[in-house]
Amino acid sequence: MKVLAAMSGGVDSAVAAARVAEAGHEVVGVHLALSRNPASHRVGARGCCTVEDAGDARRAADRIGIPFYVWDLAEQFERDVIEDFVAEYSAGRTPNPCVKCNEKIKFSALLDKALALGFDAVATGHYAQVLPGVDGPELHRAVDEAKDQSYVLAVLGPERLSRALFPLGDTPKEAVREEAEARGLRVATKPDSHDICFIADGDTAGFLAERLGTREGPIVDSSGAVLGTHEGAYAFTVGQRKGLGLSRPEPGGRPRYVLSIEPVSNTVVVGSVEELSVSSLSAGAPTWCGAPPAVGDRVGVQVRAHGAEVPAVLTGLDAAGVAVELESPVRGVAAGQTLALYSGTRVLGSATLT
User: What positions does UniProt annotate as the active site of this protein (predicted)?
Assistant: First the structure.
């Protein structure tokens, strides 16, 4: 089988490529140049797609003994991921750019290009498993629960899953690093990337301010009383407690939290932690990894990449969206987040919270 191995320059993708090559497949490594400023330098575990990452990926490919190329997808990444990220925040929603990147870049642009060039599949270093099922391939959680990335892959449909290889899904991260060391891969001890890859300094509010400018608006409580002002509602997200810029807490000294963001009026609404709790969720634009579940089914739902799974019952389902009733309330849920649905370790699909 001809396999295109996406190599980010990190330890996971390097070991994934090595495993696929060792299994006897014809493997070609490719590094995706997604940054318009690749000369920038990585700072610890922040940032990606730097000239250092490209160099690390090339050295890993040389060590494995596979051909290696760099593909420039910076323009598409800017359009489909970064511009979407900015537009979502501007609209008062909280997007997950990793979900969008997997959907639009790694398993759309990359996979389509790979298939056009005669490859059979794309391999990545994601921690997830594709297992055979009665009705076709199924996406499952990784063995290493702490590193599981099935949430950000829940947007993949059956056709894409059938062309995806995740060689690390059955292996704990510590063992992957040990394997990289044994294989002589220099990236064995390289820090993992985290946070938003295209905001290397971690200052999301500053990044958005550069793109959207400042626009003063009110901060109000749930009764509508004005408590202060802000310079851009996009700088806030539901559940946020710090950085509100308010001089006084709630009565009784309790902290305030962001409850909602109203982009039309440019208003940030804050309140108590109890007001953050929700017991039901609705989401639109569902994507199913296989046959969809049915109303009344018990499912597990996850609303953050590193959040806990919560038991729920599916109360609504049609082509436009899904609705679930949670067994226990969750806090800080924001429109724009991805709702992933599970049955045991199996990913059923995903939708976008409204």
Answer: 101, 197
